[in-house]
Amino acid sequence: MSEETVGRNECKAIGKGYEAAIAAQDRRVERLEDAFARIAKVDAELVIIVKELQKGQERTDERLDELEQKPGKRWDVLIATMISSVVGVVIGLVVSWFKVGS
Length: 102
Fold this sequence. Notes:
Blueprint: H1 8-101
C-alpha cells in the first residue's frame, strides 16, 4: 500500500479552490435571498391589491342589487296604488249607493 503525500503548496491550492467555491455559493445565496425578499414584497403588494379589488367588487355588487331591486319597488308602488284606487272606488260606490237609497 503506497501512501500519497500532499505538499503544503498543494494544500494551499486545494484550500483556495474550496474558498473560491464557498465564495461563489455565498454570492449565489445572497442573490437568492434578495430575490426572495423582492418576491415577498411583491406578494404583500398583491395581497393589498386583491383586498382592494374585493372591496370594489362588494361595492359593485351592492349597487347592482340596488339597481335590480328598483323595478320591483316600482311594481310594488304601482300595485299598492292600484289597490288603493280600487278600494277607494268601491268605498265611493258603497257610499253613493247608500245615499241614493236614503
